[in-house]
Design goal:
A: mainly alpha, 10 helices, B: four-stranded antiparallel β-sheet, 10 strands
């Protein structure tokens, strides 16, 4: 919290040895080593899953999205140009795009009345109130509050405050200027605080 | 609350404040209840978000996709001088893929296309795209330009040239599509 630096570098959030190891794995994948892809999956899939889960609020959707993202990676990695982008950055970018597509498609379905279980759909990461401990209640509440944020704020808050990616990397993932990203982080955090307070108040009644 | 104070709170959350600046902000927050409340709310929100870093659900297994369906074979026409002259008679511009005026084509619904790039200094030029599962295939040098001819079903195809190993978009394509590597693929419309 009191880091005596003006800004974080990319390497703070993504250690250089991991980047180098990703590039080593990429080389092995290009040589046809299937186990190297498995290793890449084990390293990055948890982050992809977490981002997709927090973006969509649905564990089932997040599972599907992990598959979508890594299928894309499976097909695209032979064209990946090491040194121009980091694999983690590229995966986050593909994940964000896939999540936004998924959310748009779910919204259309709801608008057409095809998804009568729309609300239940977004409830499957939650457990019954009896089973929840106090900490779990708080996690639950934040999860629900996140889903109330406009997507453009939600994605910035998730990447910055949960994934802890530096703004330079957010710029590469979202293709937005850092000033815009910082503004969205401020608005996202403020709206999230208000949503948590509102939901906490409703829950307490 | 001043905008600059709010900015400092978020700079603190982002780890961008020095230890001295953080001490000054906290002292100011103690003296200013509005700033103090804002700082408290934002720090609590950040703390709550950190709690979501833990994910309880098990990681799904990756199901490898089936190998890509074989695409239409890469139909390179004979690029002898006479054949080339006959086939490319309608091509007036180097760069933009051009439906070629082809003599006596089989009527299978596919369209003859020439892909050509002006690259006089290149030692090797390849093209990869949706039409060949992104496996680079060679173009043939024709003076200063490099070209290949193929037959494709009507549709849209993203593609890139590979010039001496460097992936390069077609500078004269009419449209482009984000390739998710931060670059643009050229798109061929047929």
């Amino acid at each position: 919290m009191s880091a005596p630096v003006a800004s974080m570098s990319l390497d703070d959030a993504c250690p250089l040895d991991e980047v180098a190891d990703d590039e080593r794995l990429l080389g092995q994948i290009l040589e046809g080593n299937g186990q190297a892809f498995d290793a890449l999956y084990r390293r990055h899939a948890p982050r992809v899953f977490r981002l997709a889960l927090r973006m969509t609020g649905s564990a089932a959707d997040a599972e599907d999205l992990v598959q979508v993202v890594f299928e894309r990676a499976w097909r695209a990695l032979p064209r990946f140009r090491p040194g121009e982008a980091r694999i983690s950055t590229w995966l986050y970018r593909v994940t964000v795009n896939a999540c936004l597509d998924q959310l748009k498609s779910a919204r259309r379905q709801r608008e057409r009345g095809l998804d009568a279980d729309g609300l239940a759909h977004h409830a499957d990461t939650r457990r019954g109130p009896e089973a929840r401990l106090a900490g779990e209640q708080s996690r639950d509440l934040v999860e629900r509050a996140l889903l109330q944020l406009p997507e453009k704020y939600r994605v910035v808050v998730l990447l910055r405050d949960i994934e802890e990616r530096p703004y330079q990397e957010l710029r590469a993932i979202l293709k937005l200027p850092i000033t815009t990203l910082k503004m969205r982080a401020v608005r996202g955090r403020e709206q999230l605080a208000r949503a948590c307070e509102r939901l906490g108040h409703e829950g307490g009644r | 609350m001043r905008r600059s104070d709010k900015a400092k709170v978020h700079a603190l959350l982002d780890g961008e404040l020095s230890a001295a600046a953080e001490r000054a902000l906290r002292a100011q927050a103690e003296a200013d209840p509005e700033l103090g409340a804002y700082l408290g709310r934002m720090e609590a929100t950040r703390q709550a978000l950190r709690g979501l870093q833990r994910v309880d659900a098990p990681l799904p297994a990756f199901v490898r996709p089936a190998p890509a369906a074989p695409r239409a074979p890469w139909l390179l026409w004979a690029v002898g001088a006479a054949a080339a002259a006959a086939a490319v008679v309608a091509v007036t511009q180097v760069g933009e893929p051009t439906p070629a005026a082809a003599p006596a084509e089989p009527d299978d619904g596919r369209l003859p296309v020439e892909l050509a790039l002006n690259a006089p200094g290149a030692g090797e030029v390849q093209v990869a795209g949706d039409f060949n599962a992104w496996q680079p295939a060679p173009l043939t040098r024709e003076g200063d330009r490099w070209a290949t001819r193929l037959r494709l079903e009507p549709g849209r195809y993203a593609y890139m040239y590979v010039v001496d190993g460097r992936w390069t978009p077609d500078p004269e394509a009419h449209s482009f599509r984000d390739d998710e590597f931060g670059r643009k693929n050229a798109v061929l419309h047929l």
